[in-house]
Design a protein that fits this description.
This protein is α/β, with parallel strands linked by helices. The protein has 13 helices and 24 strands. The protein binds ligand EPZ. Ligand EPZ binds next to α1, α5, α6 and α12.
């Protein structure tokens, strides 16, 4: 077990290069299964979830090597269609291996995925769509046994909700299918277009990755490619929140303005000076923060649910009252109690949190409840008076590459220690 020790009160300042996007790297790693030859992926962040995805690939017979941010995968030796339960349970995004393995082999056996406790994480939309594509799915002892006796067929799929994972699973399953698949009401998150671009580099025929309607014309086979994943927009938002919470000034190299419109808008409403371009974002929070009256998490291009917790932490000391509504997940306020231990004034009612700014937060011992909630506690600890200890940081390591090193480079007084 490890923990972070943070002495608050230092203004963050300086430049950081944003890591590669976890939520793009994971489905693209699954997509390696579909390729007919070696794939080289650059800009892959060193995260526990990435290692988990490489273990799943290995269990399928796909050899991988992960060196200095580059994953080389050799999908020519696929020898299994079964993903062991202990690997499936390590993260939610393991479910996208279903579409990839089915797309490649026409069969797959795996258990329900794991992941952060953000409320129920059903996969009904995934399964309904795959069934429409001719996949026979039976559930036995918590495992899904999937077969396609007549091959995978293209279909027109209307998603009741623009689910990111379901959109990715369908794209992966459709790339080698017989005929065209059209996904209506598809997720429009930038990670969807990144996956589409990766698959195109492998020879897939996909249009509309960011439009809400994705068309995939199945091809006979895909080849390998070299690809660099997009920058992590949620990490960018998180470090913006850390800088704003400490009254700092930072430049985020690699962050793309196009991915963060709704996020930069909230920081500007909070009184930050933000200037952004295609490959960097500058944030200056020298002025005291103002509350933001109404933040609602929504599917892209709305305000991203993954930025909700860090932005809430930043608003704990803002002047006035902020109202945050979490519309995507039913239980994504587990960081509120921990922030309250630091002196934050937050009242929750269902999916709405009312944050009344306080003059000070106070360092204390807190426990990361999930990935983004843990990042929120780090942001709050950086802004608090005194020393904080954040434990359960393995959850933070799922999505942030060496978070203490990045923050220390920006002037934070932070260290990691075994406990
Ligand atoms: C992806 O999760 C991300 N994870 C999440 O990031 C992110 O919060 C989420 O998209 C929304 O943007 C990865 O990409 C690995 P969804 P996913 O399917 O695919 C319901 C992080 O912190 N739903 O868009 O699981 C579901 O319960 C993580 O990096 C169904 O009801 O999200 C949720 O309420 C957390 N049935 C909503 O839709 C389904 O079949 C959004 O889920 C699928 C989803």
């Amino acid at each position: 077990m490890q923990r972070l020790i943070i002495k608050g009160g230092k203004q963050l300042s300086g430049e950081l290069t944003v890591q590669g996007a976890k939520n793009s790297a994971l489905p693209i790693l699954a997509g390696c299964v579909l390729a007919g030859s070696q794939v080289k992926l650059r800009g892959i962040p060193e995260l526990s979830d990435v290692y988990a995805a490489c273990r799943i690939l290995a269990s399928l017979g796909v050899k991988t090597a992960f060196v200095d941010g580059t994953v080389t995968a050799d999908p020519t030796g696929i020898s299994s269609i079964h993903v062991p339960e202990k690997l499936m349970r390590q993260m939610r995004s393991s479910i996208v291996f279903l579409g990839a393995v089915l797309g490649k082999t026409g069969a797959c056996r795996l258990s329900f995925p794991g992941g952060c406790e953000l409320g129920p994480r059903p996969i009904d939309m995934h399964l309904r769509a795959l069934r429409q594509m001719g996949v026979k799915i039976t559930e036995k002892y918590g495992e899904l046994i999937c077969e396609c006796p007549h091959g995978i067929k293209g279909a027109v799929i209307n998603l009741p909700f623009p689910s990111v994972g379901a959109t990715e699973n369908i794209m992966l399953c459709a790339a080698l299918a017989d005929g065209e698949t059209v996904i209506c009401n598809a997720a429009r998150e930038p990670e969807i277009e990144d996956l589409a671009e990766f698959l195109r580099c492998c020879g897939a025929r996909i249009i509309g990755g960011s439009s809400g309607t994705v068309r995939i014309k199945g091809v006979k086979e895909l080849h390998g490619c070299e690809y660099t994943v997009m920058p992590d927009r949620i990490c960018a938002a998180t470090f913006m929140a850390a800088a704003a919470a400490t009254g700092g000034e930072i430049v985020l190299k690699g962050a793309r303005a196009q991915d963060l419109g709704a996020v930069t808008d909230v920081f500007r409403q909070a009184g930050c000076l933000v200037s952004d371009s295609a490959d960097r974002i500058y944030l200056n929070a020298k002025k005291p923060l103002r509350a933001v009256r109404d933040i609602k998490t929504l599917p892209y291009p709305g305000f991203p649910t993954d930025a909700q917790a860090p932005v809430m932490a930043m608003l704990c000391k803002a002047r006035g009252t902020s109202v945050i509504t979490e519309t995507i997940f039913s239980s994504r306020f587990r960081h509120v109690d921990e922030l309250a231990r630091m002196g934050a004034d937050i009242k929750t009612e269902g999916r709405t949190a009312v944050v009344t700014g306080v003059r000070e937060l106070y360092g204390t011992g807190v426990v990361a409840p999930d990935l983004r909630g843990g990042a929120a506690l780090v942001c709050a600890a950086l802004a608090a008076q005194g020393e904080s200890t954040v434990t359960n940081i393995c959850l933070i390591d799922r999505g942030y590459e060496k978070i203490e090193k990045t923050l220390a480079l920006l002037g934070a007084d932070i260290r990691r220690e075994n406990c």
